[in-house]
Amino acid sequence: MGIEAVTARPQSDLGPEAAARLSGWLRDYQMLPGVPDELFDVMRRPRADWLELLAGFAEYPEAESRSRFSVATRHIRDTGVTYRVYGEENERIWPVNPLPLILGHREWAAIAAGVEQRATLIEAILQDIYGEAKLVESGALPAAALTGSVDFVRAMRGVEPPGGRHMPLYACDLGRGPDGRWWVLDDRTQAPSGAGYALENRLVLSRAYPALYNRMNVQRLAPFFDGMRKGLSASAQRSDPRICLLTPGPFSETYFGQAQLARYLGLLLVEGDDLLARDGKVYLRTIAGLKRADVILRRVDADYLDPLELNGASQLGVPGILEAIREGGVAMVNMPGTGVMESKALLGFMPKLCRIMLGETLKLPNVATWWCGQPAEQKYVEDNLSRLVVGPAFNASAGQCSRSRLIADLSVEDRESVSAWLRDRPGDHVGQEVVRLSTMPVLRGDRLEAAPFVLRVYAAWTPDGFRIMPGGFCRTSERPDARAVSMGEGARTADVWVLDDKPVEGATLLASHDDVKIRRVAGTLPSRAADNLFWLGRYLERAEATLRLARSLCTSLMVTETAIHGSGETLEGLQTLLVGWGALDEDALGSGSLEATVSTLRDEDADGSVIRLVRAARRTAASMRERLSADFWTLLLGLETELAATWPMPRSEAEALGQVERALQVLAALSGLAQENINRDAGWRFLDMGRRIERGINACRMARTFAHEAATTDDLDLLLDLVDSQITYRARYLVGLSMIPVRDTAVLDGFNTRSLAFQVLTLKDHLAKLPTLLDDGVPEEPHRVLLPLSTEIETSEAASLTIERIAHFEATLLHLSGVIADRYFLQGAKAVPTIKLSGLG
Predict the structure, then answer these.
(1) For 421, what's the count of Cα atoms within 13 Å in the CB-facing half-sphere?
(2) Is residue 249 helix, strand or coil?
(3) Which residues contact 124 (CB under 8 A, 6 or more apart)?
């Protein structure tokens, strides 16, 4: 195609540079032999929708295009959009292509109709196999094709699902076959993942290219998620249900996507330990006692849901939850047992089952599949091994073939092994036609290249029937010959733009004002979230205190007027604190202040080093990403990155001091965000309580170290530095440093925001605002510990304050931390339903 044809398009009006750029992309684009492509038709003519998209990209100068996408993808890095490859400890940054997959409205209508039909068919099959089992009785579906799967949950037979549906949420992976039609590669019926990532991909590209996004009439995702949320609510028994998203936890491969979905839909993100099954119901452990969980959207495979009835080794589920489902005490989405429909053993039966159950032919055909549990099919696979893929029939097959293999690519020895597997356990294997995926254009550097792709499409049951997400989750392969695409094999992702033939109205999740009950608190805080917030506060405060110690250590030998702590007992006390906190190894003490400062900041082996504390804070924060703002997460990740790698190794005390000061500034910014950008609900209180307890403990420990009876002026000056009270002290006392006033400033002064007294007063206020389990007027244990401490501090006189009393204050704060954990955090079997609640029901 020439430049003239491109510039003739009336909607583009491309300049010479843009036209040349577009023409070069099209001219150099190499299609894979014998594989259909999204950009070009069979006559190698560019399709109109793709031409409009690429023309829009070409209009951006090259530097601006890169800059726009770089700004958008920086959001991915800064906010910690990640995924995890199974078996790996570290997370990877989410990889997004600058170009979306484009689907016209007519083609999309056919895809949507096929996905809706398939979801309806699978629901009908599930109703039968967990109900009357007529398909098995009639021979239309062999019993072994079901019972061979670990995902067939016999305990769910005869159980009426909430709302009458086993599978309110469905997804399928699609690929375009050689004939140009879309084919179903896999069904996702158990706990379809990726919807949160699809939403994130849309946010990235719509931010990078907003004008192009709007001009091309891209259908919005919000109506799908709105319908999904309404469908979840409709499955509950109460009008204002408590809906939870059950996650395997932060080490799940797709944890960020789960957290993103929970945040967007307003769901509580919970783990198995957060829930308790009792008396045929499921409860959420909260700081106000047990609260009813009405609906659970699960991301935990069924086999791990209930260690009492299923996998006894599971630590991800909830003991007794299957009984609660049978009793109708909780709605589970999707129902346990739906995962059986993901078995490849069933793919070969789907065309016949569609005719039986719906009286229709499949609108989206399967990949041709032969289950070897039948003699004729087994023989066919054995006779045609050289041109088939052989793989496991079930998700957790007992056979030796744990993944699909193209027999033609195997050695003679491996082929003989596959033949032996088939003869030994034929029912554990399937044979499938080799699927060569179609390709779509991706930008690699300045070139447009063809990449095989897989499209995942979602369907959610709503009060108005199934709603199909207009778009989905697209994965592209980095390899030119891909027969399977997974995120663990170097794949990238792309947004999916479904184009409308008319302008698209803006859509959000905003509800009608008549449907919303006014609420000024976020709701009951789960115990695990309170636990994580509390320790997040403690880790951040300890990191700040350690940085202040490192700053003093760094300046101890610098030749400046303020360097008065460079030797003697003051320096020894400073070093003793760092060693006692685990921030510095004793072997590093003799290496000089620069090396000791660097070790305090970056020593990966020191439990109390700043990098270890910041990483502990990040791991804790990762368990509740849905509760933290993007700004908070960006600052925390940035600090970890700088401590770990970005900062160059300092060559002098001055450079090390600069790095310490920068880290303190980031922590100050995090503290400011916590104070100004987080609602004053229970979550904020636990975050602040963690900081206050840690700050109070640190103030006591520093006072005991540097305000002892034989303290020098250097000691007292350093103490005021460490508790950040130099300005406060010097504004009140003009006579210089003196023992009793310094002790009072650091410990007893209730007006000094850094003193122990201020922390205790703040803790007293926080505890007074938290809910109580019983409305009997009897103070709970945290109050019984804190009130005497508060009274003792308020009535103490500075002149009589001793090191022993300060140590007593410190021990009491440590005890208070324990009783707060005993009262508000996860209690296991000790949890009891609330008798009368002070907060929400």
Answers:
(1) 25
(2) coil
(3) 357, 358
125-128 contacts, C-beta under 8 A, 24 or more apart: 125/341, 125/353, 125/357, 126/166, 126/167, 126/335, 126/337, 126/338, 126/341, 127/166, 128/357
Reply yes or no on whether the pLDDT at 513 is more than 70.
no
Query: What is the Cα–Cα distance from 756 to 723, expressed in whole angstroms?
Result: 10
The average pLDDT across 145-152 equals: 92
The residues, any chain, with a CB within 8 Å of residue 818's CB and separated by 6 or more, are none
pLDDT of 469-506, one tens digit each?
999 989 998 877 655 555 456 688 899 999 998 888 76
- pTM, to two decimals: 0.86
Q: Are strands 369-371 and 439-444 parallel, antiparallel or unpaired?
A: unpaired
The pairing of beta strand 281-286 with beta strand 289-292: antiparallel
| 517 exposure class (CB count in 10 Å sphere: 0-12, 13-18, 19+) | exposed
Say if residues 224 and 460 touch (Cβ distance below 8 Å): yes
CB-side neighbour CA atoms (13 Å) of 796: 25
Which residue, among 707, 689, 821, 824, has the nearest Cα to 762 in the 3D structure?
689
**Spatial distance between the Cα atoms of 457 and 528, rounded to a whole number of angstroms:** 33
Q: Is 188 helix (H, G, I), strand (E, B) or coil?
A: strand
Residue 217 preceded by cis peptide, ω within 30 = no
Q: How far apart are the C-alpha atoms of 457 and 114, rounded to whole Å?
A: 11
Q: What is the pLDDT of residues 733-771, one digit of tens each?
A: 887 899 999 999 999 999 999 999 999 999 999 999 998
> What pLDDT does 508 receive?
55
212 dihedral zone (left: phi>0; alpha: psi -120 to 50; beta): alpha
Q: CA dist 812 to 129, 658, 793, Å?
A: 60, 36, 12
Phi-psi region of 217 (alpha: psi -120 to 50; beta: other; left: phi over 0): left
Q: Is the pLDDT of residue 796 over 90?
A: yes
Residue 719 three-state SS: helix
The 8 Å CB, 24+ separation contacts for 19-23 are 19/58, 21/58, 21/62, 22/54, 22/55, 22/58
| Residues counted in the chain | 841
What gap in Å lies between CA 319 and CA 275, rounded to an integer?
9
pLDDT band at 147 (very low <50, low <70, confident <90, very high): very high
Q: 297: pLDDT confidence band, cut at 50, 70 and 90?
A: very high
Q: Please state, for a pLDDT cut of 70, what percent of the chain lies above it.
A: 87
Is the CB of residue 338 less than 8 Å from the CB of residue 192? no
Mean pLDDT rounded to a whole number for the chain: 86
Total Cβ atoms within 10 A of residue 785: 20
Look at residue 795 in the predicted model and tell me its pLDDT: 95
Identify the H or E element spanning 431. Answer: strand 429-433
| Alpha carbons 840 and 192: distance in angstroms, whole number | 32
- Contact assessment for residue 626 and residue 269, using Cβ atoms and an 8 Å cutoff: yes
If we measure between CA atoms, which residue out of 714, 638, 654, 666 comes closest to residue 547? 666
Token readout for 55 is 């023309």
Quote the CA–CA distance of 756 and 16 in Å, as a whole number: 70
| Confidence check: pLDDT of 815 > 90 | yes
Most confident of 137-141, 579-583, 628-632: 137-141
- Quickly list DSSP for 583-603: SS-GGGGGG-HHHHHHHHHH-
Instruction: Please name the amino acid found at residue 674.
Output: A
**Whether the Cβ atoms of residue 157 and residue 138 lie closer than 8 Å to each other:** no
pLDDT at 827: 62
Q: Is the pLDDT of residue 50 over 70?
A: yes
For residue 174, list its beta bridge partners. 184, 455
- What is the pLDDT at residue 487? 47
Neighbouring residues of 423: CB distance < 8 A, sequence distance ≥ 6: none
